[in-house]
Amino acid sequence: MAEKSTLSPTSQTSSPLPRRRPTQRVQYLEVNCTSSGKTRRFAESTDAGSAVELINMRLKTEEVGLPSALYIEAVKDGEEPIVFGPTSTLVSYGDGWKLQTVTQTDLFRTGILLTGLVTKNSTKIHGYKA
Known about the structure:
Blueprint: E1 28-32, E2 39-43, H1 48-62, E3 69-75, E4 82-84, E5 98-103, H2 104-109
Parallel strand pairs: 1-5
Antiparallel strand pairs: 1-2, 3-4, 3-5
């Protein structure tokens, strides 16, 4: 024969769950899309190739007709840009550095010619597909 519990549900003591307090604020990186002018946010461990793909998906669905991103670079006035390859993890380089996309239009506008990377029939750069 099973014994009945002598404790009622209201008489059982339970300690309240501790409130979870974040020790750090949520970290993310912002990438400026040069095509749309919009800023996109990504988790700090996002690889550049995934970020480019997500930005391009948004451009195709929300901003039809704008040029696709080829890659992401970190820029700062007076400094040489730092280019992120498709498998590079996006990082912030600190004060004054901004992450932004680069399009084929941007390359031609600035007069940068990437011999062997951009061809007439292809916009493939280091594994990126526009």
